[in-house]
Amino acid sequence: xxxxxxxxxxxxxxxxxxxxxxxLVLGVLLIGVMIGPAxxxxxxxxxxxxxxxxxxxxxxxVSEADWNIVWLIRSPRVVLAAIVGAVLSVSGASYQGVxxxxxxxxxxxxxxxxxxxxxxxxxxxxxxxxxSWIIDPLPFAAFxxxxxxVFVTYVVGTSFGRNRSTVTLVLAGVAVTSLTTAIQTFILQxxxxxxRQVFSWVMGRLSSATWGDVRLILPYVVFSCxxxxxxxxxxxxxxxxxxxxxxxxxxxxxxxLTVVLAATLGTAAAVAVSGLIGFVGIIVPHTVRLIVGxxxxxxxxxxxLLGAVFLVLADIPSRVLADxxxxxxxxxxxxxxxxxxxxxxxxxxxxx
Amino acid sequence: MSTLGxxxxxxxxxxxxxVKSFNDILHSGEWLxxxxxxxxxxxxxxxxxxxxxEYSGSVAIDQQEIPATxxxxxxxxxxxxxxxxLMPDDMTAYEYVLLGRNPYIKHFASETKYDKAVVEKxxxxxxxxxxxxxxxxxxxxxxxxxxxxxxxxxxxxxxxxLDEPTAALxxxxxxxxxxxVDALRREQGLTVVSAMHDLTLAGLxxxxxxxxxxxxxxxxxxxxxxxxxxxLAEFYGVSARVHHESDGTVVVIPQRANSN
Lengths: 352, 260
Known about the structure:
The complex is a heterodimer of chains A (about 350) and B (about 260).
Chain A lengths: L13 H21 L9 H9 L11 H35 L12 H18 L9 H21 L7 H25 L4 H8 L8 H20 L1 H7 L3 H6 L4 H23 L5 H13 L3 H25 L8 H19 L5
Helix pairs in contact in A: 1-3, 1-13, 3-8, 3-11, 3-12, 3-13, 4-5, 4-6, 4-11, 5-6, 5-11, 8-11, 9-13, 12-13
Chain B lengths: L3 E10 L2 E11 L4 E5 L6 H8 L6 E6 L2 E2 L5 H7 E4 L11 H6 L14 H13 L15 H14 L4 E5 L7 H18 L2 E5 L3 H7 L2 E6 L2 E6 L1 H4 L2 H8 L3 E5 L5 E5 L6
Parallel strand pairs in B: 3-8, 3-9, 6-7, 7-8
Antiparallel strand pairs in B: 1-2, 1-4, 4-5, 9-10, 11-12
Helix pairs in contact in B: 4-5, 5-6
């Protein structure tokens, strides 16, 4: 196994990293709402935000129309990017912990594509009828699809004898992804009226984010993050392997089931509004490990913060490179993520 | 401090019987050594006692049967040192030993001051205070073994199980590890069960030896009773001389087939 550098001895810099990351989140959120092709001059935006706070009045020179661009178009997109980045990162880190496999993330386990399939089915069946749903079934369908996928991946990936290798699980994930993608394509062929809608969604759909999307996924995401954070100490105990963790009194099956369910719920909610954004769950946790070491007590919370930062930043090129068409954010993350993944594989080649 | 009893313990893997009706009772502070050829079921007995394999029959601490469902209760009473423990790459020895407190920590809670104090005490006892910030993956074989024993001690369990505690160690570190276990057992009244291959060392440290063969206990008693050349020949298929030192130590010396 490859080694991360020793955590700095003597002084503990964890607290500093947490405050720094917190500030970074606020910073990129602000940068995110300041940048855009239309709208007010960038430096007027923070002034206007201050102006909107109670008891503060600053003449920022932002017109009502410009404010609408900032508040109704840019802000939900930036906030949604932060939420999706946070939950994909923390889910990725949790999957890595619970499967004791540094190569897995929501995308490679087939979770994301399963959620995509679930969502596609909803798109396909919803298009024909004008039935109005009381609750949006999209997150639920995505969750079901994601759950089936991760279950199949896990069963297939761990059923080859006792020497379950880290790569077997990834290969199983790839196979499951291919299968769900094939089914998705089949459904789309049959319902080509929704192809456009689904395709733009698959490529990552932050561009059309609204506050409604944020409201839709926030409860699922908050729940999922809380459950995962509560398991941070147990994920550390799992690092010594199933047998020893059992001997230390951990009910492995229950922990694994809860963590997988929570991570899958968070991923599915993210996928339901943002489409398939790959590699976030692998880039962010591994970068975090380089900074603060591998203890999940530090990795999970810091992944939430830096995941938000990463996706807001990754969304900026996809907004700025909007000529002739916007670059999907999934393309941006894959552009950074795929080489990162290869690097990770190479670092681990002795074991793989 | 506690007795350990095995009653009619049977284990099978995929229908193949690995251990058959194993019965034994260890009194408090006793050191029992399981010996026997590879695949005799020594490790299976230990693994059953910590709940890693399914078994029929029962394992009891102070005549109280361990319920199959309570992993924490089990871990509070039985600590286990596996043959080749998994040492995470990026975990300090302190964090590693702290894992031993898991049986006392509620599901979602974290370590209390008391837990940390126990760990400090254990580290001090095993002269590991200087190792606190060392990464366990970088430790040498002997240091590793001490850190793993420290983790087991942090469990504050009255029963300690050791699976091949000397397998990866040179003769000096073998002696050091076994002396440590012996000292701890005398200080804290630990009841110890170890599975071992080195018969001379087994006879030297254990109060009692149990020889297993094909899942069945075939001989039990002190070193003089069990370590006899005809018994070893029958169950190990080894031709060995057994030498009795004047101080009572039993030494097993393998013989070459065509030596004169």
